[in-house]
Amino acid sequence: MLKIITEINDIINNLVWGTPMLALLIGTGIFMTVSTRFFQFTHWRHWLNCTLGSIFTDKHITMHTDKNDGSISQFQSLCTTLAATLGTGNIVGVASAIILGGPGSIFWMWIVSFFGMMTIYSENVLGIFYRRRNLANQWSGGPMYYLQYGLGSKTGFKHIGKLLANTFAGFCVLASFGIGNMSQVNSIAGNMQSTFGISPLPLGLILMFLGGLVILGGIKRIANVTEKLVPFMAITYILMALTVCIINIKTFPQVISSIFAGAFGLQSAAGGIVGSGLNLALTWGMKRGVFSNEAGLGSSAIINSCSNVTEPVRQGMWGIFEVFADTIVLCSLTSFAILSSGLINLDTGALIDTSINEAELAGKAFATAFGSLGPVFIAIAILMFAFATVLGWSHYGAKAFEFLFGERYIFVYKIIFVWFIFLGSIMKLSLVWDLSDTFNGLMAIPNLIGVLGLSPLVVKITMDYIKRTLNRLNAKP
């Protein structure tokens, strides 16, 4: 039976993550980029000032909302979304992309992320525009809502919109238990056992207890934890990765050359190394880019819809920054640290020691700068990143569950979700990893249909914002 499930999943996974699906993902990003006149590029200074810059200059960005208000601050929405995206994809995912797709996969990761900025921007704009309050006075939004109440409001699309909304919500609930829970916790357990010799059983109980304390407290408690955890872990990881890069800086010209050569299949032509060809570099770079920043999946719009912002474009710009921070900064630093470490043959793009797997590669790369502390730091980083991902995904799944079954049953979902934290730490999860990738990809199909179908509205909102805000600022003497 298990073999049959695995074979069926392999077929579906190949369809979901095949060339047509990847073309749809990046095609949507290109379409939204062109439609909004390359907003993420032409107005980069503005969205950077309104996101990272505003954290230090505008107290309203970080100010907590009233306890009776179901919304969270813009900074909390950023941290909670980053908590869900900053996970094993930033470390193990990048390592696997390099092993399976060669250094050239990093180039395609950048490309899909550049266009993905406008996909996630569009999701956030639509999320804010179509969100609504539930009975607990909390904001509920995301693809479920803009599919049913946005796309579904178009003539002849009422039933299609509702079907797509329910389909997305169902896939989101399933993905929350896999990619957002068990696979993350399993990575924590494996790293803690191999690095520190900690048994998965007691670790699972501890993680379940800590997860329950936060998750059962709802979005405000999750946001209160992530706004402290995410900046600390992100800054620490950036500093450590930068140290590795600086120590190995002499190799950087060759690192950059290998990325661009591998991106267009030049390494495979010269060295004949499997995994460094154009097709594999393109496929794995795009897959790991989407897996890391979740642009196109619609998941981040669920949390961003909880923000206390009233201007849809403002929250859309936070989405652009999320992709920038997650992939352009953190994933790039991981890739540079690995490629400059001497563990990869930069002429061919192949691993020098083929016994090293993707879970070990980053740790050994950091060991070139920090010795035996390198793998220890990576194990701790995966612990923090992955646990934060579990917290963020618990809200994704809870909101999708609420959409399907109503608010009264959310607590049931949360109890089951917390129990799965323990299961994930003690089970062998090769099939769960495969199923997680499948459900994760299936979320993108209804979401991208909604984004494309409602793209004229996104463009209209964006152009109106530019006219009201940016043109007025530019006109000042």
What's the total helix number? 22
Major sheet details: 2 strands, antiparallel
Please mark out the parts with pLDDT under 50 across 5 or more consecutive residues, or reply none.
269-276
Gross morphology is: globular
Query: What percent strand?
Result: under 5%
Rg of Cα set: 21 Å
Q: SSE order, as H and E?
A: HHHHHHHHEEHHHHHHHHHEEHHHHH
Structural class determined from secondary elements: mainly alpha
Helix content: over 70%
Please give the number of β-strands. 4
Map the helices and strands.
Elements (H helix, E strand, L loop, with lengths): L1 H15 L2 H17 L3 H4 L1 H14 L1 H4 L11 H12 L2 H14 L2 H27 L1 E2 L5 E2 L2 H8 L7 H39 L3 H16 L2 H30 L4 H12 L2 H6 L6 H16 L6 H5 L7 H28 L4 E2 L4 E2 L6 H13 L2 H33 L4 H17 L3 H24 L1 H21 L2
Antiparallel strand pairs: 1-2, 3-4
